[in-house]
Amino acid sequence: MPIARLPASAFARRPVDALFAGLFAASMLAGCAAPASTGAARSAAAGGGLDRIEHIVVIYAENRSFDHLFGLFPGAEGLAQATAVQKTQLDHDGTPLTVLPPVYEGGRIVASLPTGMANGPFRLDAPPFDRRLDDMLPSPVHAYFHHREQINGGQNNRFVAMGDSGAMPMGHWDGSKLRLWKWAQDYTLADHFFMAAFGGSFLNHQWLICACTPKLAEPLPPSRLELDANGRLVKDKASPPSVMQGPVRVKDGRHTPDGFAVNTLQPPYQPSTIGPDPADASRADPKGHPVTPQTARTIGDTLSAKGVSWAWYSGGWKAVALDARQPVAQRTVMGVRGPASLNFQTHHQPFNYFARFAPGTADRAQHLLGGDDFMAAIDAGRLPQVSFYKPVGRLSQHPGHGNLAQGDAHLDDVLQRLRRSPQWPRMAVIVTYDENGGYWDHVPPPSGPGWGDRWGPGTRIPALVISPFARRGFVDKTVYDTTSVLKLITRRFGLEPLPGVREKMGDLTAAFDFTQTP
Question: How far apart are CA 90 and CA 153, in angstroms?
């Protein structure tokens, strides 16, 4: 079935004041233009034969925007399509920067990296930056309130000013050097796939499993968040007037004034960076203000209700299980830094925030498993019907937790294993990223009723569909977000839909051609 390309006008620019007005309305972007046709309508014909897929595997990597990795991919909407407005970054006063600022890390200039680069996107692996895929580079801020301002009504021209790393958000790679690029060439690359929520990993992992934002119980934890009348972060008095003089300083917080957790907060159960509860070492000490145990319906609940087998596999899960019960100062795995560190991230374990999967429950033992369990199940042909795989931090491609080359090699190894698995002939694999990691992308996120709401979607991210039934050598122009993964699983197994899944987003079936023989 032919897939319509979306015209540039389908993603309209929006005034920044309109974007932030009505901060706590159910649909912050309701007046914005949306794509003219829905992914659901375009994918309907491709859905025939979906029952031929018996196993869906979701691999969730970290912190890369589409333009950052695939902006040079042939046939995809990439850097060549970015407008001058989208590429030209603005200072805090709204004027275009003459040049990009230096790269900052920890509030200081990184003296080893170049300065005075032209205002716009630049190659990280070419002069004057000239870095390698195995280099460790600064990690730009990726937080909820920052991100909304960076997008700036779809103009995407405040990524530098509202970041904390100077020029870094504008950096991109020649992704053709990546092994994942080859998989994209061979199968389907979606070039209009957006992260479900504004901000970082914590919130986007929640949206992957429940299409929801965690609600905190009263009293709310302490917060220094201050927003102005337009919903923008209030700057500290010591914040530099120009990003050329240093990174912005703002009065940020981890939850909204009405009690929704949007930036990283810790789970109520171990493993957590909060030490153990003195009364129960399997829980996080309540004095550390962990998230209230959540009870919203998740994809795990809907799968279990239908009798569909599933698991969340996480690299490093078993290694930290006992370590997490120790006082923070006595831990030998969690929080340890260095080249051999796992860099296990507790806020990347979304089911650990939910009461149904509390320590000691049968659901936790059955469904929350380790990365080694995943590899063994692949090789033995024993994967459940739905598998989520979370690479451990140093293999996830998260800047600062590991390098891009290391994570790329790991993803390639996992995909090679899956293709050798006895279950491969009836399998579909989705490889995507939790969020953009603070990196710029030029395509405005879709918005309006059925497309967006208070929480997102945010910046465009890479997504690949790899399967014997995937369209070969195909760039899918359908509009998706992270909740499209939930739509696909729900459609394939006839599940009860989750209420937060966005109505007009595609369900990924446009990426398949079931006339093919596995």
Answer: 13
pLDDT digits (tens, 9 = 90+) for 2-52: 333 343 434 444 433 333 334 433 333 333 444 534 444 444 444 469 999
Of 59, 56, 60, 38, the closest CA to residue 502 belongs to 38
Determine which helix (DSSP H) or strand (DSSP E) holds 369, and give its type and residue range.
Answer: strand 368-370
Helices and strands, number each (H, E), in the chain: 13, 16
Token pair for 47: 């859905």
Question: Which residues lie closer than 8 Å to 93 by C-beta, 6 or more apart?
Answer: 241, 242
Both tokens of 417, joined, read: 């294993």
Alpha helices in 62-143 (DSSP H): 66-70, 84-87
> Using a CB cutoff of 8 Å and minimum separation of 24, what contacts does 183-187 make?
183/412, 183/415, 183/431, 183/464, 183/466, 184/70, 184/73, 184/462, 184/464, 185/473, 186/466, 186/472, 186/473, 187/464, 187/465, 187/466, 187/467, 187/470, 187/471, 187/472, 187/473, 187/474
Q: Can you tell me which residue has the tokens 């949206």?
A: 207
CA–CA separation, 469 vs 455, rounded Å? Answer: 33
| Token pair belonging to 152 | 């700036």
Beta strand pairing call for 188-190 and 463-466: antiparallel
Print the SS3 string covering 196-228. Answer: CCCCCHHHHHHHHHHCCCCECCCCCCCCCCCEC
The CATH fold assigned to 8-81+100-128+135-511 is Alkaline Phosphatase, subunit A (3.40.720)
Distance CA 417, CA 341 (A): 24
Distance CA 486, CA 350 (A): 15
Q: What is the pTM of this model?
A: 0.92
What is the spatial distance between Cα 36 and Cα 1, in angstroms, rounded to a whole number?
18
Q: Which two tokens stand for residue 324?
A: 């997490």
- Cβ atoms of 260 and 214 within 8 Å: the answer is yes
Do you find a cis peptide bond into 114, omega within 30 degrees of 0?
no
Residue 311, CA distances (Å) to 233, 308, 371 in order: 39, 10, 11
Phi, psi dihedrals of residue 175, rounded to the nearest 5°: -65, -10
Intra-chain end-to-end CA distance of the chain, in Å: 19
Taking only the tens place, the pLDDT of each residue in 142-172 is: 999 999 999 999 999 999 999 999 999 999 9
